[in-house]
Amino acid sequence: MSDLYAEVILPLPLHDAFTYQVPGHLESDIAEGKRVVVQFGQKKLYSALVTALSSKKPENIDVKKIYEVLDEQPVVLSKNIKLWRWIAKYYCCTLGDVFKAALPGGLKLESKSKVFAVDDGTEAELTEKEQLLLQQIGSENSTVDELQKKLRNDFSYPVLKSLFKKNCIQIEEKINARYKPKTETFVKLHPEIENKKILNNKLNDLQRAKKQQALLLHFCEKINAFKKDVLLSVSKKELLDGTGFTPAILKELVKKKLVIQFQKQVSRIEEETENSQVSINLLNKHQEKALTEIQASFEKKQVTLIHGITASGKTEIYIHLIDEILKSGKQALYLVPEIALTTQIVRRLKNVFGKKVGIYHSKLSSQERVEIWDKVLQFQTKPENGYQVILGARSAIFMPFSKLGLVIVDEEHENSFKQFDPAPRYNARDMAVILGLQNNAKVLLGSATPSFETYYNAVNGKYGLVNLKKRHTNVELPETLVADVKKAYKRRQMHSVLSPELYELMQGAAEKNEQSILFQNRRGYSPFVECFTCGWIPKCKNCDVSLTYHKYKKRLTCHYCGYSQQMPDSCDNCGSNEIKTRGFGTEKIEDELKPLFPNASLARMDLDTARSKTALEKIIQNLESRKTDILIGTQMVTKGLDFEHVSVVGILNADNLLNFPDFRAHERAFQLILQVSGRAGRKNNRGKVVIQTSQPEHPLLNLIISQDYTSVFKAQMEERKLFRYPPFFRLIKIVVKHKNQQTVDRAAIQLKQFLEKNNKLILLGPEYPLVSRIQLWYQKEIWIKFDKSLHLDNTKDFIIDCVSKTKHLPDNSNCVINIDVDPM
Ligand code: ADP
Ligand code: ZN
Ligand code: ZN
Prior knowledge:
The two termini are about 50 Å apart. The radius of gyration is 30 Å and the shape is globular. By secondary structure, it is α/β, with parallel strands linked by helices.
């Protein structure tokens, strides 16, 4: 009997790690960070992750055995799991939750993962068992769970894993309708050509078609037809490129039933041929100074903030720092809020660092994500094959770095670093700081508009602070003016949604062949429609929101749950057929501006037009090549775009930014307006920004015009201190959800009563959030504020306990209660 025990994490929302016995024959295979197959609960098998090994038998527990070890090499390192533990504790979730967020789908084999075949396996040299399982899986989505139930003893995790490795199946957490695996045309011999003899005969038959014969020969060489028994395929591109053979000749071979063409899934990760193609830009003197200051700050502080205005060239500084770290043999992580919007940065990094760079994000297939994961792991053993730099969105903090030396968080103020749902509700910016501490890696946070929490840490000396106040080409920051739309509407001076100020500037830009960007935070045609007679407004049947009209699709759509219905011809309430659109979405603005700028080419950038990566790239390309004159967009246009010829930026409606009911509203409005303004006049001439509002006297607007970051910061700090908000107080949000409204109301009050037992906690609510019902679930929030001097872990334990007590009260078992630490 073996005396080895393994502690494992299961991909389930369970708090504890579980102990299993390692049978003798697996002792040499098992290791920390490898996946194993274990039984949990009734009869179900799970793939779990080994986090520790020990020879001490756990007391009083009836330990089960590990069935199988899935990996030859660990898929995570124990130093990576340290961060998982930290996150589970800090964000009040389970290690299972973190495990699920950390590993890419293809490595998890969760019971709810969807599995489907993407290849018939004829070329993959499958074993009998693999073939059998592949047939069973088929092209329909079934979950791992369903397969287990259906196949019973024929189901096997190792076989599932090897099918995945051989590219025959996809494993996804949820099937993303938008995602299409990339395929290419491949060519293989016709199945009737069973052996070399037939092949030779066929070649002879082509005596009089020399070109076809030559191509067939070339093809046979490519696939090694004369040496090997198993005949593989070759991609059409590889077969024809640079050979002089045309597709037409290949077509003839297909016609004569000599070869067949088929589609095969290929990786999107292009192999870079050379190591690095472009040398690094020299820094200007301001950047040089900032770089030196950052390096000096790194000597003293773990974390440094670079506060550099828009277009000051922060990216260039990051590249210099990364270059240095790479030369010292360490790895770098470069986090960006949304990878889709960073095609420009991707290009710059790839140009400089070539195949050392891996890009990690959610639009990749599960195979591709695993491929990148593996290459980060490989860096430990074979640095020349592995990735030394990862550019990624928030989940990249979980990558299996072995020698991390530098973490950069660009646009650190962005709230997309925060995961809202599901747990862990972590902020990748804050976890980057922890990651840095755990790995003794330096952390650089960068922004033109740092979050006030970060800036507070910087001015208080917790973080280092470096300023960069000059744009790369020394152009001044844009001139900003406020346009009073209320007045303009009254005087009938508006040109559709454009104030006279903005209209004139845009006309001027168009004449000089310069570009304009307009920001409107609503997509679709109109945010709601209304019956002109009785005021009826169509609402979502699942959520407490009005439906947005999309003119192109002629549909009303819910932006919270995706529900959509046809635009009604008449009112549901009174039958009148005068249904009017209300308010302006990006789609309507595009429509209305066309006649105002008949010679300009307009484009729109929002979730509807930029669904896919290629669509987005096209929009960006058209701006770069100046095919687009006027770009209208949502939040997307505020983020990091770098174009030389944009001279005018318009914020069409600043009112809803200024009046948003949140303690961070002013910080956000300021950041957003400054960021979008920063898209103007980046290279040549000073740009112009127009902020349209009906409250031109709003005090924040004056500070925005003067671009006075520190004044806004100071004013807000006063308020936050007074009203006891972060960074002075800690904040935890609890959301109670249930499909029944009364249950939510009751449970929320019960929870509050438990929480009130600790009189050090300041409680707000329970209250309905702005949208009180989403996807049929009602929700109520309680906000908890408490002093930083309070013991954090104990306070959290108390809160967790209150939540659990509430759930255990009669009729509350179906309540979902989420704890959100540091909510955004
Ligand atoms: P930020 O991220 O600070 O807003 P970027 O890094 O995007 O600014 O830089 C703005 C523009 O200036 C980019 O087009 C960039 O290529 C250019 N740039 C910045 N620094 C340099 C440099 N040292 N040499 C050449 N071009 C630079
Ligand atoms: Zn009506
Ligand atoms: Zn809805």
